[in-house]
């Protein structure tokens, strides 16, 4: 019985393994993307350790992010997770998007967002990118993606937009 892998993305004992073709998903080109394509990230539950690590990296030492008493005296139910940390959950790399477009990706060129609800340690976040616009321009094309982050209560906590520059198939 032949048990050798047949997919070009699998290693085989014959020795023709190529790490360049060992892909998580089959790649897409700019032309393969469609308006409405959605790329989701796995859900993540934020912990105090995540918030502390981000505070250390960002150097943002505002007490609203770590002082429960300070936060509660000012109307917050708990310390508030840094907004930029929530925004980081929309990073393309948090989804499979870069695996689909890895060979045609040139740059992440822009972003905007609105913070709609507070996020606290213990919240579970669900983020997604949705292709909203594809703008070809010769050898490159711009992808405009809407980004959303929901919490475990089905509340939209962040919405915004990313822009990426990709190579096209035009030569």
General description of the model:
The protein is an alpha+beta fold and 171 residues long. The chain has one domain (30-167): Thiol Ester Dehydrase, Chain A. It contains four helices and six strands, in the order ββααααββββ. Strands 1, 2, 3, 4, 5 and 6 form a six-stranded antiparallel beta sheet that branches. A hairpin with a 2-residue loop joins β4 and β5.
Topology of helices and strands:
Blueprint lengths: L37 E3 L3 E2 L2 H11 L9 H6 L9 H6 L8 H5 L3 E11 L8 E14 L2 E12 L4 E12 L4
Antiparallel strand pairs: 1-4, 2-4, 3-6, 4-5, 5-6
Count of helix runs: 4
Query: How would the global form be characterised?
Result: elongated
The CATH topology label is Thiol Ester Dehydrase, Chain A
The helicity comes to: 10-25%
Spatial separation of the terminal alpha carbons? 46 Å
Structural class, please? alpha+beta
Could you state the CATH homologous superfamily?
A: Hotdog Thioesterase
InterPro entries: HotDog_dom_sf, MaoC-like_dom, MCH/BMMD
Organism: Flavobacterium rivuli WB 3.3-2 = DSM 21788
Protein name: Dehydratase
Domain MaoC-like: 38-149
């Amino acid at each position: 019985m032949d048990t050798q892998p047949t997919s070009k993305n699998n290693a085989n004992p014959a020795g023709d393994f190529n790490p360049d073709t060992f892909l998580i998903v089959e790649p897409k080109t700019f032309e393969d993307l469609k308006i409405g394509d959605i790329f989701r990230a796995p859900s993540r539950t934020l912990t105090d350790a995540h918030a502390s690590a981000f505070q250390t990296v960002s150097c943002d030492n505002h007490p609203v992010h770590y002082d429960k008493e300070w936060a509660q005296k000012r109307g917050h139910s708990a310390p508030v997770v840094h907004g930029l940390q929530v925004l980081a959950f929309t990073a393309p790399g948090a989804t499979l998007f870069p695996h689909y477009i890895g060979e045609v990706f040139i740059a992440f060129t822009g972003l905007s967002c609105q913070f709609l609800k507070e996020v606290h340690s213990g919240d579970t976040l669900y983020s997604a990118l949705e292709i909203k616009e594809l703008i070809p321009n010769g050898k490159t094309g711009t992808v405009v993606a809407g980004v959303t982050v929901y919490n475990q209560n089905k509340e939209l906590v962040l919405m915004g937009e990313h822009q990426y520059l990709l190579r096209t198939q035009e030569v």
